[in-house]
Design brief:
This protein is globular. With about 140 residues, it is an alpha+beta fold. It starts with about 30 loop residues before the first strand and ends with a helix. The protein has a four-stranded mixed beta sheet with strand order 1-4-2-3. It has four helices and four strands, in the order E-H-E-E-H-E-H-H. Helices cover about 40% and strands about 10% of the residues. About 15% of the residues are buried. The protein has one domain: Conserved hypothetical protein from pyrococcus furiosus pfu- 392566-001, ParB domain.
Amino acid sequence: MVVSQPTRSSYSHLGPDSRPSGSESNQPLTVIYRSIPELTPYERNARTHSKQQIRKIAESIRAFGFTNPVLIDSSSTIVAGHGRVQAAKLLGMVEVPTILLESLTKAQIQAYIIADNRLAEDAGWDEGSLKIELQNQIGRAHV
């Protein structure tokens, strides 16, 4: 098990009223690498991933590393990151980075599971910026 250095809360620069309710005051987040068999998928997870999507996630992990830790509760149940764990298995990984959500209640965790997935679906794209980014990527591929 590997532990990374704790970091300050991303809300700390906004003052105490900006932190989500239920969070510990200035509670640092610690990334701990846990073995995949230690983790239990949330049994009522409503989000699904096709085999093609899992392969895409695996390719992203292969290309960029495992940059988005799996969120778990105190019983090592996956709160967010089911697809990343499946992709890690596909890649033959034995451990994944995790963050334990110690300061959230069970009700908050259940709400977060849905909110985490829905918020991403509600996001849009700035078409102009996307076009520029894709052109830059294509240009780099030809260099």
